[in-house]
Amino acid sequence: MMSKIDWVAMILVIVGGLNWGLIAINSGWNLVTILLGSWPIAVTVVYGLIGLSALYSVYHLFMNK
User: Which single residue of 5, 10, 20, 27 has CA 20 to 30 Å from 49?
Assistant: First the structure.
């Protein structure tokens, strides 16, 4: 059973993965910047949350063996 924080982390990691996929297709397609481009601090916060979510996911992966 996944907790709320697990769901949030999973969604943010998916958003980050999709963003990198779009950037690989065309460097101008940055989903986070497209959605929050007028708020650069919000973009930085979202990228930070995605990074923390990835670290949480790695920790969760290895601690649940």
Answer: 27
Q: Is 39 strand, coil or helix?
A: coil
Q: How far apart are alpha carbons 22 and 36 in whole angstroms?
A: 16
pTM: 0.84
CA distances from 54 to 4, 7, 24, 39 (A): 15, 12, 19, 23
Give pLDDT tens digits for 7-53: 999 999 999 999 999 999 998 899 899 889 889 999 999 999 999 99
CA–CA separation, 53 and 19 (whole Å): 15
CA angle 37, 38, 41 (to 5 degrees): 80
Ordered by start, the domain boundaries in the chain are 4-63
